[in-house]
Amino acid sequence: MTTPNVSARRRFAAIAAVGAAAALVLSGCSASGQAETPGGEFTGEYTGPEVELSYWNGFTGGDGPFMQQMVDEFMAEHDNIKIVSNTSQWSDFYQRLPAAVTAGEGPDVGVMHLDQLATNAARGVILPLDDLAESLELTADDFTEEVWDAGVYKEQRYGIPLDVHSLAMYYNTEHFAAAGISEPPTDDASFQEALTKLQAAGYQTPFWMPARWPSHLMNLSLQWQFGGEPYGEDGTEAQFDSEAGVNAIEWQTSIIENGFSPEDVAVDSQYVAFKNGETSITWDGIWQINDLNASGLPYAAAPVPTIGEKEAVWANSHHFFLPKTSGDENKVNAAKVFIAWMSEHSGEWAGAGMIPARESVRSSGVLDGTAQAPIAELIDTMRFLPSVPGIGTVQAETLEVAVGDAVLGESEPKEAMSTATKRANQLMEDNAASFGN
User: Which CATH number fits domain 166-314+389-435: 3.90.950.10, 3.40.190.10, 3.30.2010.10, 3.20.20.330?
Assistant: First the structure.
């Protein structure tokens, strides 16, 4: 179980990780250009001598035990491969990885977020995995187009998708019953109606709008819903100040203006308030499912309502990667077997509250009866940040700041988005020069 304070730290860490990783790579070199992963032809088995693999990941919360269980099962089936998990906060993970790989002290295999792949590929920290994907017969047909394509940088694949995790809407079922709401809201009209009914039932501030995390993820979702592209179709420039971007932030600030939320909601406060039964609805990641299950709160999960004209919601994904190593073929081959096994058994990862990335796994019934099942039904509407090096620092230093300033009333929504757009485009221009794009 992840306590509220730990949850806050984890999410602060995730935010810091994005900026920290980007800052590290800005001074880095270009990608290695290596087209084929070392280790020779992948046969699906490892028959070499006993090896010990260092496996780096950031699963420090309630998802950690599920990952370790999968690791233990793998080792039980492969007595010549020992996996030593090195688990740290994601912020520490992304700070340590580039320097450790450069020094020859990095992992033999690891997992990172999809939005970090391009940055680490551009730095030459991780290796292309096209040959492994081909050997595993993994194709776009078994994944959504969004998550499959987002793992590609400069026409090479750098990650093997494990899961998809998105924002969801959580609602207190007792509050809904008291307010006479029989179904979760699905659009702006039904959402506003639900909030009004909840207030009438005595829940004065039923939906808290945070100034920071995960407010910028809400904003991205809303921008897509209003028909916008936060970073343009090719991901080369920011467009936060588009009509869709302004509509998104104005909707968020209207929640406060209409009295549905307090004016100054700190990081994690909206989640803690919901978990304690103080609020009726919250939008947060599906990684909170196990924590809510353990809390005993009467709740249900549903997709984020379509406030705009298009169904869309922010999402991310954990991808397996291979670091640039000294070239121990036995370790590389064993790591490939590990990645293949984890991909094939990703249905077990649903126990961590995640959605398996492979459609063939999802359709096997592993999500039946889970809280994330209704969210998984709309997996085709999940959207990801573009595969652009340094995109994390752009997010952290521009959009997150703009959303916070507008929600707190420190800037007018349109002005905040305009300022952020100018700053983001300058950063992206600098990044393009630094990474040689």
Answer: 3.40.190.10
